[in-house]
Amino acid sequence: MGKTDWKAKAKALKKAVRRLQGPKSGAPAAPTPAKATTPVSPLAPAAFPDLPQIAGVEFAAAAAGVRYAGRTDVMLVRLAPGTSVAGAFTRSSTRAACIRDCQEKLAAKVPAGSGAAIIVNSGNSNAFTGAAGQSAVRAITDAVAAALDLPASRVFSSSTGVIGEPLPFGRITGKIPDLVANLSGGGMAGAARAIMTTDTFPKGAAATVTGEGGEIRIAGIAKGSGMIAPDMATMLVYIFTDAQIAPPLLQKMLSRQIGDTFNAITVDSDTSTSDALILAATGKSRAAEITARSPAAKPFEAALRSVMMDLAHQVIRDGEGATKFVEIRVTGAISPQDAHRVAMAVANSPLVKTAIAGQDPNWGRIVAAVGKSGAEADRDRLSIRFGDILVAEKGWRNPAYREEDGAAYMLLQDLVIGIDLGLGKASRTVWTCDLTHRYIDINADYRS
Amino acid sequence: MGKTDWKAKAKALKKAVRRLQGPKSGAPAAPTPAKATTPVSPLAPAAFPDLPQIAGVEFAAAAAGVRYAGRTDVMLVRLAPGTSVAGAFTRSSTRAACIRDCQEKLAAKVPAGSGAAIIVNSGNSNAFTGAAGQSAVRAITDAVAAALDLPASRVFSSSTGVIGEPLPFGRITGKIPDLVANLSGGGMAGAARAIMTTDTFPKGAAATVTGEGGEIRIAGIAKGSGMIAPDMATMLVYIFTDAQIAPPLLQKMLSRQIGDTFNAITVDSDTSTSDALILAATGKSRAAEITARSPAAKPFEAALRSVMMDLAHQVIRDGEGATKFVEIRVTGAISPQDAHRVAMAVANSPLVKTAIAGQDPNWGRIVAAVGKSGAEADRDRLSIRFGDILVAEKGWRNPAYREEDGAAYMLLQDLVIGIDLGLGKASRTVWTCDLTHRYIDINADYRS
Fold first, then answer.
1. Exposure b/e, A177-194, CB count within 10 A at least 16 = b
2. Whether A443 contacts B368, CB under 8 Å
3. Under 8 Å CB-to-CB from A150, ≥6 apart: which residues?
4. Which of B12, B92, B413 lies at the smallest CB-CB distance from A372?
5. Which of A354, A356, A391, A409 to mutate against chain B (most B CBs within 10 Å)?
6. What is d(CA B228, CA B268) in angstroms, rounded to the nearest whole number?
7. Minimal Cα–Cα distance from B351 to chain A, Å?
8. Distance (Å) from the C-alpha of residue A303 to the closest C-alpha of chain B?
9. Which range among A89-93, B83-87, B212-216, B269-273 shows the weakest confidence by mean pLDDT?
10. B269 and A350 in contact by Cβ < 8 A?
11. Distance from C-alpha of B255 to C-alpha of B261, rounded to nearest angstrom
12. Which residue has the higher pLDDT, A383 or B277?
């Protein structure tokens, strides 16, 4: 297979070793300087939204140097006594220690009387770190519990970043006094920045609902850019509301809305070991308690859904290397499972995603992706649309379709690909982005 | 979302339209000049192998200008009377007209007395071309049947290339007289070139077995580079042998060996609409007929497997943009299905593949891919190896593992990633390649 170029190999080796700066004696690596800023995604919103303060929620961020120096990388959230907490988490069988800890604590259903807290770090995911990983979670959540006078069972933690490296948790616990001192109701934007990894912009969204006797506010933040194919959960997402609502109903609404929002997005088909969504309701609004039957229940759930959808779409708009925001609408499937299978086969097809990156209306690759999905499909009933343009139907290209029209459509930044299977009534919409050189740039180098 | 740069858009539009050169009136587009040659894959074998002639098989190639001018793009194979034919085909629900035609003809079990033929074109896959696609298959196979005095039911065809464009079949049928005139037992290498699309090298493999009373030869050719994730079949592969063997046994051996060879490779997780493998046995060897119980049956099947494996590996070595040939060995799974699921989740993970492209021993991404696979896995029993290097076990990095060793290993061209789930006895080995900038280059432009 050709001669080995040893000189080139040696050079690459040297570079690789230099990059690794491997911890040699078990001591955590010193923080490296934060990388040169990646250009902001062309799909980013014009500005971070003006998030309302949520009564009963305070934020603080700090630079702990978990992995990178010169940036904030820890956020702390304090939640007032009486706060209901709900959550959704990755189903990865290799999920991180903090995910397991959150799941156990939520399952224990500790009364909300005492308040609660969330602590999150970026730079290290504490995933696949064995028993030491569990100890690190305990050390961090115990320290927060002590500092805020809370039971440890009400302190939730998340970690995001490199997998398999020991978490230098002392750097985090060392910052807790500062974090506690700086807690403020207006700190949500700073918190959104502290949890970023390869994200090119911080993500926030908000909504307001009129309840019985007062306004109810919802505001949330998220991080996510790569390793995005949530499975019953999402990236890191924290949503806060001042609604009064019991934990079981809050959880029910969250679980109901996650399928069409965070579980309907994919950047690269890779599900993270650290996906987590925590939803906290402080009950500080003047509006009456929301119960399953109260008139505000539906509007509140709709507003919650809108915040979730907005954040989920922002994650796709910050997909690693993304230049196109793509909606895949599948209709006419014989079952919701089949509709999902087709939508995800198209959304995750490297050939479809590279065609979109090349602004090529290559609908043949969409046909191939439908064909490989395993879902029931009939070539002669299938139809494909770019936006409103009918591209193909009845087993062939629509005679009225002109490739110039498809080519012009592909130049848009936001695309809608419609796929009707013509077999049944089930449908599914998912969102994805294109696959570009920048994805390779980011991931052939970044340690995640 | 920022201001629109209309000038840039207009430019891109102009370029896209120019590229498309869309057929406007239903007439097939004129052939465009063949593209500048892509550099040969760094993983390519040093040279095309010296394939033996197979008695009873003749080849011819021609330049029909199906899509590109200045290159051969049609091959014809004539098989002697008495040839047994077996096949394996894509299970895509949107498979091409020629695939359906081959499947029907093989199912009809026409006696082999009359001989047979195979005609293949590159440049256009005749997939998703409706009733016109079926007519094109009929026109081509009927013309070959007439020219070679064969029943049409013994003429098999394949097409590979762009999906959804009408196949200009007249260009192919117009070349049949030339093809017939040029048939020769020594034309296999030329045939291997004629079926290439984005391939950077032609693929061939051969083996010889000692039968009872004489030698048995096997030789085959393949094409494949992208849209590679075969599902019960493969790219285009044609394997010939002079063995005497009845069609049912030939088919049985083929079906038995396809799982571990062509169905164990993936370049990009995209299954083609045109995958086909045709295996023909002319019976011209002096060796006695192979039956299920004859002593030559096992050696023959082993030799057939070796040719299939060699060709399957060559397809990966020519994977679009590949710089690494990667074997994924999964052991310790509770079922073969789980082992396959884990192996393919790792082999198709864009994050694993980009890490390999970057020569980064990023085993955390392997853990994440195992976790997302849906297979049963236990973090604390999982172990991961790079070649012989034990990287991680018991839920954490092996304390003796040094990242420098992993980094040095990743510089090799051929890599073996070992994943032991520690749960059962099932195993699965699959092959893949890395995901590089060249994959994006090739696929953001090429129409397939």
1. eebbebbeeebbbbbbbb
2. no
3. A114, A115, A116, A117, A144
4. B92
5. A354
6. 6
7. 6
8. 23
9. B269-273
10. yes
11. 11
12. A383
In chain B, which residues have their Cβ closer than 8 Å to the Cβ of A437? Answer: 437, 440
Cβ count near A14 (within 10 Å): 11
Q: Do residues A122 and A195 lie in contact, with contact meaning Cβ atoms separated by under 8 Å?
A: yes
- B285 contacts B216 by C-beta, under 8 angstroms: yes
For the annotated catalytic residues of A, the residue numbers are 234
Helices vs. strands in chain A: H and E counts, helices first:
13, 18
Identity at B441, one-letter amino acid code? D
Q: What is the pLDDT of residues A108-167, one digit of tens each?
A: 988 878 899 999 999 999 988 888 999 999 999 999 999 999 999 999 999 998 888 899
**DSSP calls for B21-57:** ---SSSPPPPPEEPPPPPPPPTTS-SS---PPP-TTE
Minimal C-alpha gap between A311 and chain B (Å) = 16
pLDDT computed for residue B1 by the predictor:
33
Widest pairwise Cα distance in chain B: 79
- DSSP class of residue A31 equals P
Q: What is the tens place of the pLDDT at every residue in B226-252?
A: 777 765 444 788 899 999 999 999 999
Task: Judge whether B241 counts as a catalytic residue.
Answer: no
Question: What are the tens digits of pLDDT across the range A182-216?
Answer: 999 999 999 999 998 888 899 999 999 998 999 99
Query: Could you tell me if the ipTM is greater than 0.85?
Result: no
> Which residues in chain B (287-346) have CB-CB distances under 8 A to chain A?
none
Identity of the amino acid at B191: A
d(CA A161, CA B362): 12
pLDDT range class, residue B27, cuts 50, 70, 90: low
Do A129 and A164 form a contact (C-beta atoms < 8 A)?
yes
Separation of alpha carbons A35 and A290, rounded Å = 46
Instruction: Taking each helix axis as running N to C, give the angle between helix B350-357 and helix B363-372, from 0 to 180 degrees, rounded to the nearest 10.
Output: 160
H or E, element range at A353: helix A350-357
* Structure-token pair, residue A348: 């995750």
Residue of A nearest to B436 (CA): A440
Name which of A205, A183, A208, A191 is nearest A285 in CA terms.
A208
Q: Strand, coil or helix: what is A57?
A: strand
Nearest neighbour of B130 by CB, restricted to A395, A411, A440:
A395
Residues sharing a CB contact under 8 Å with residue A320, sequence separation 6 or more, in sequence order: A198, A225, A226, A267, A268, A438, A439, A442, A443
Nearest CA among A274, A442, A243, A432 for reference residue A354: A432
Going by C-alpha positions, the residue among B440, B443, B170, B228 that lies closest to residue B344 is B228
Establish if A127 touches chain B: CB-CB under 8 angstroms: yes
